[in-house]
Amino acid sequence: MSGPVGNNPYRASGVVAAAAGGGAISWCTTVKTGAFCVAAGSGYLVNTTSTAFTATLPCSPAEGDQASFVDFAGTFDSNALTLGRGGKKIKGACCDATVSAERGAVTIIYTGTTQGWIQTSQGNDGTMVQAEFVAATGGNQPTATGCIVCTNYKVHTFTGTGPLCVSNAGNSAGSSTIDYLVVAGGAGGGGGGPGTHSGGGGGAGGYRESNGTASGCYTTSPLGTGPCTTALTAAVTDYTITVGAGGAGSLSKNCKSTAGDDSVFSTITSAGGGTSGEAGGSAPGSAGGAGGSGGGGGSCTGGAGGAGNTPPTTPNQGFAGGSGKCNPAPDLSSGGGGGATAVGANAGCGEGGDGGAGATSCITASPVARAGGGGGGANVADGGGQGTAGGGNSNPTPGPAMAGTVNTGGGAASGSASTPLPCNGGGAGGSGYVVVRYKFQ
Asked: Does the pLDDT at position 395 exceed 70?
């Protein structure tokens, strides 16, 4: 370092010294424009016009050591200065800090191993900001730590209604958003016979998910793309997660099945699957019910499939059910329930329509298909097929139809017509499922 300049004993060429608590700060007037290591007792003029970079704090500081930083060009708001902790804590935490306010300035002092570096002053709101992450508990978890951990991300699954308790909402320097998958309960399947008629397949529960960009690179279904799929901003609160029950199957060809129940997380509601159309009812009664995905139409009068995406969401939460067919026997058959990504198939000649396909997401770190529609039924034993995670019919042996898969929101299949056997009831819809995922470190 050069000697004193003029009569000022604290000033040397390129260095300006100023008294401060815990020792003097000597300002280096050579502007820093890239990453550098910090010397104890030094102050720095920092220019981040070209790029953001890191100032690494001393690895072996003594208690009372200080350092100061100032935004030389007024660009910290666009290119923040990161203060690398150098192996010591900053404000009691083992993570770096940033100074991100325009014309921000900050002076810090080392206080020992417990709190490490803390700030003693700031200018123009140039507070050191450290990364904070979402922290929460709740859900039906398969691990002792309370959630699935996927590298830097945590996943909470809910197979039944319960709370998600968020204790830290995080911040923009760390994480402050939550990805989600919300699947409603699927509807029950229609009843079949006695006679030659069968009710429609149950509609799948509504399926809504975020785009996955907030909590790591996992694969979403096609419904996780486009507008209105951004993750939700976290809040410190106890969210009530509602997981919809699956609907009951119809025990008679003259009755509709029961719709699935809604599933809810925060502002995201997925609607329960639509009911099956009646097998032996009048024209209005033989139409499938509207819901997250629509129910299949019954065979009597060739009932229309129920509308999907009801109430409407963007993207669609599900699709319509297929229509039934009412030509003379043996062509009587019912439509398949709608699924998350496809409509239920219309009934064929003596063949029940397949349920609409569901959606596959890797939000739980492995691909799982959910929200498929239930298969429609047909004359005698010729049952319909099934959508992804939906119930298949009991083909080739008459009897109770298959249920939707539990915790997938699958619609249930219709019971086949049963001349001359007793009535065949429709299956029960699959219960819903809710998943939340966030970055925790």
From this structure: no
Q: What pLDDT does residue 279 have?
A: 79
User: What is the token pair recorded at 19?
Assistant: 């008294």
Distance CA 115, CA 268 (A): 40
Based on the fold, state whether residues 72 and 219 are members of the same structural domain. Answer: no
The pTM (predicted TM-score) of the whole model is: 0.78
- Total count of residues recorded for the chain: 441
The pLDDT confidence band at residue 172, using thresholds 50, 70 and 90, is confident
* DSSP line for 90-155: BTTBSS-EEE-STT-EEEEEE--TTT-EEEEEEETT--EEE---EEEE-S--SSTTSSEEETTEEE
The number of domains in the chain is 2
Q: How far is CA 412 from CA 61, 173, 258, 305, in A?
A: 67, 46, 10, 15
What number of H helices and E strands is found in the chain? 0, 26
Q: Does residue 174 sit in the same domain as residue 303?
A: yes
CA distance 79 to 87: 23
**Domain that residue 50 falls in:** 4-130
